[in-house]
Amino acid sequence: MVRKLTTALLILLGVIAAIFAMFQGLGDPERMVVGQTGDQATLDNIRKDLNLDKPKWKQFVLYLNDVSPISVYRKEAKYRKQIRGLFIGKDICVGIKLPYLGRSYQSRKKVTEILADALPGTLILATTAMVFASIIGIFLGCVAAIRKDSRIDQAVIVFSVGGISAPSFFMAIIIAYLFGIVWHSFTGLTPTGSLFAINELTGERQLQLQNLVLPALTLGIRPLAIITQLTRSSMLEVLSQDYIRTARAKGLSTGKVLFKHALPNALNPVITAVTGWFAELLAGSFFIEYIFNWNGIGKVTVDALEKLDYPVVMGAVLLSACIFILVNLGTDVLYRKIDPRVR
Question: Are 79 and 31 in contact (CB under 8 A)?
């Protein structure tokens, strides 16, 4: 775990360096903050406030200090940026804090607040899609393996190949059009909408679970297809092992052989797919959220890109990297729980 955590920190450092370099020279941040009518004095003050008047290497060091949980600040800088944390020291303050990702150029809100507001929507959407894909995918894969070379097996293979081949943004448009517009009178679903809606009369937030159906279905198609194929191939390999034949020779029921002996040993590649895809759904559902107008990290990032709001985009990329790393660490722990051979 120490080795993996060290690797994770190095990866995060590389991501921070990459996103810092990526957005250098793309537009004038001070002009984006004050608009086209700001005078030179205002622009100079904004440049100083954003540390844009310093050399690039120093800007990177300051950005790294901001996003790091352990940081060093001058006392006035800590209060100026309203950084939350536990600091010690007088003129030079050292302490543990929440990462500071800057402020939005457009709304002037903290990037952490913007991402925190959007993260629950992405978590709910990705979790729903992954639960749907995992349950249906493992079930279809087991059925296809048990009925190998039958029509059911062939149908499952065709479905999984089609699901893998179809681009997510294309499927999102088709599903939104068919189920949200053409067949709206039968489904009762709308092509766009978030988990909560504001009542125009009372101003209260109302839960809209029906808006979750179409984006979760669309987002779950590709992982469903991959999990189905992985479960099928892994189950076929496990069912051909000697210990499965021994279990059957001892007179164990088919259900006990499949679910107690075969399936747990076939789940390793499936777990890799589930955790990997869950991380990707959390970090990469940009087009799905944008097409269905679902309030989440993806939609916030696309909106920020349209407005050239780089602090929000950089914060979203960094959050995505953290999600991938945490999920991969969790996968290693899960392996040890499910498969005793790992221990």
Answer: no
Average pLDDT score over residue span 230-257: 79
Whether the per-residue pLDDT at 35 is higher than 70: the answer is no
**Residue 82 confidence class, pLDDT cut points 50, 70, 90:** low
Distance between CA atoms of residues 245 and 256, nearest Å: 13
Contact call for residues 121 and 194 (beta carbons, < 8 A): yes
- Evaluate if residue 70 carries a pLDDT over 70: yes
- Give the mean pLDDT of 112-141: 88
Residue 343 domain-assigned? no
Q: Would you report the helix, strand and coil content of the chain in percent, each value rounded to 5?
A: 70, 5, 25
Looking at the fold, whether 278 and 331 belong to one and the same domain comes out as yes
Long-range CB contacts for residues 286-290, cutoff 8 Å, separation at least 24: 287/168, 287/169, 287/172, 288/125, 288/168, 288/169, 288/172, 288/215, 288/218, 288/219, 289/121, 289/122, 289/125, 289/215
Residues 306 and 224 in one domain: yes
The pLDDT-based confidence of 30 (bands split at 50, 70, 90) is: low
Q: For the chain, what percent of residues have pLDDT higher than 90?
A: 0
**Joined tokens for residue 132:** 């749907």
Do 56 and 195 belong together in one domain? no
260 found inside a domain: yes
Residue among 66, 170, 48, 61 at smallest CA distance from 111: 66
CATH number of the domain bearing residue 244: 1.10.3720.10
How many domains are contained in the chain?
3
Determine the pLDDT at residue 33. 64
Q: Which stretch of DSSP H or E encloses residue 241? A: none
Please indicate, yes or no, if residue 106 is contained in any of the structural domains.
no
pLDDT for 161 equals 86
**Residues 300, 115 contacting (CB under 8 angstroms):** yes
- Please name which of 313, 279, 314 lies closest in space to residue 299, comparing C-alpha atoms: 313
Q: What is the C-alpha to C-alpha distance for residues 238 and 266, in angstroms, rounded to an integer?
A: 6
Tell me the C-alpha to C-alpha distance, in Å, between residue 82 and each of 63, 73, 78.
Answer: 15, 12, 6
